[in-house]
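Write out the 3D structure for:
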Amino acid sequence: HLLKLKTNKMKLLFRILITSILVLVIAHFMSGVHVANFATALIVAVVLGLLNIFIKPILVILTLPVTLLTLGLFLLVINAIMILLCTKIVGGFEVDTFWTALLFSIILSVLQSIVLSVTGGDK
């Protein structure tokens, strides 16, 4: 049981590290996204994780009719809102517009899926 707990902690740390690196890489190539340094990217990864655990489910429930009407596409808007909320919480992380946040969240999600499936970090 203790070994499983350590494995879960390692998986979580690995995911945070991967997300941090991806945030930095995306910010480097995408205009409108600004990350001060790697420490800021680490904080962004942790805050995004916490927002997705605690705030996102509430927003999903509150916007369920709109999400159903748009066949789930409104979830992209919720993801962009999570990014914008993160910019308000984390100093040194800025996203210029809603549309930039939307594109950033899509790219981040796709790259996370790819990297974690290739590295086995999604298991």
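The mean pLDDT is 94.
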